[in-house]
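Sample entry (386 residues):
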Amino acid sequence: MIHLFINALAASAGGGLTYVRNVIPALAERNDIKVSIAADPGLRAEFRQFANVEFVYLDLSTVRRFWFEQTSLPELIRRSGANVLLSTGNFALRTSPVPQILLSRNSIYTSKDYFHDLRRRHEYWMSADTHLRAILAKRSIDWADVTVAPSEAFAAELRKWAAASVLAIHHGFDPETFVRNSKPLPEETEAKIRAADGALKILFVSHYNYYRNFETLIRALPLVRSQMGKRSVRLLLTCELAAGKNPGAYRPETAASLIRELNVSEMVVELGTIPYPQLHQLYGRAEFYVTPAYTETFAHPLVEAMSSGLPVIASDIPVHREICGDSALYFEKFSPSALAETTVRLARSPESVKRMAALGTARAQAFSWKKHAEEILGVARTLVSH
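Predicted structure, serialized as tokens:
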């Protein structure tokens, strides 16, 4: 039997949380494995029903977490009796007591655009910190027995960057689980969405950060407005562009200032964080999904949007084309005019909207958490047998 120890201490927001919330149930439904997981205490309530999953809840700061992982976590793994380690947070253990699979899923370490963006914003401390993390991420690929990326496009990027072998295993999606929760959205959120009724509602699911390229999206808004004629447009954001309202050290003040400068405040609806179990209800209230991100590794919201029947408008980067294929329209990643033109063109073509919705729904079915878990376990069995 495979006993898999999952280090998920870094799963605190965004794609890390999405991964843990979906891969644990996919693994727990199997009776041929045992899972031990180190995770944040906030996840306790979500996983207590799984009999073959044992949890080690640790509440650690980022700095303490890395030190703990390298010094104390190996002993916890030994005591658990696990025979394979899955490190999900981009950094591997330098001296793992068992064979180690590293899930590398942070493309900012390899992105020239990201470092250029930081310099442009005068974020010199963040740039230095990211460079240091990039060094550790590259070394981690050497420390791990197998490194896994969530897309072939990012795997190719890692192979070139680290001069090492990297395996691509797509992340998954479970449409039945995604829409299972029927609890209504908070009334405050509902009121904001209802106020946008009648407008073309465009959705972007992300907390604020730099690499999701919010500013290009904001700059496109007045161009969309000028071309849409009488029909109003609303951009629904699952964040608030205010200090202290988003995870990480990213500063949203520039984006908030840009909204005021361009006089598009009435077009931007800041919904704040939407609980993941209720997120499907938000997709159901929008007409288009858009992402201007200039770097990605997988982008779960793209699959969620396609499964929800939303046409996707995405920046033209390899990961987006790999995930969406022909079911999305693409624009040059730093061009507000190209984004605006693509949005208006789609809004004026009901036939294209219908066709893309059908293509996206079919495309989303290619991703499965069950398949992802099977492939990860296949790698684990190979490591154990060797």
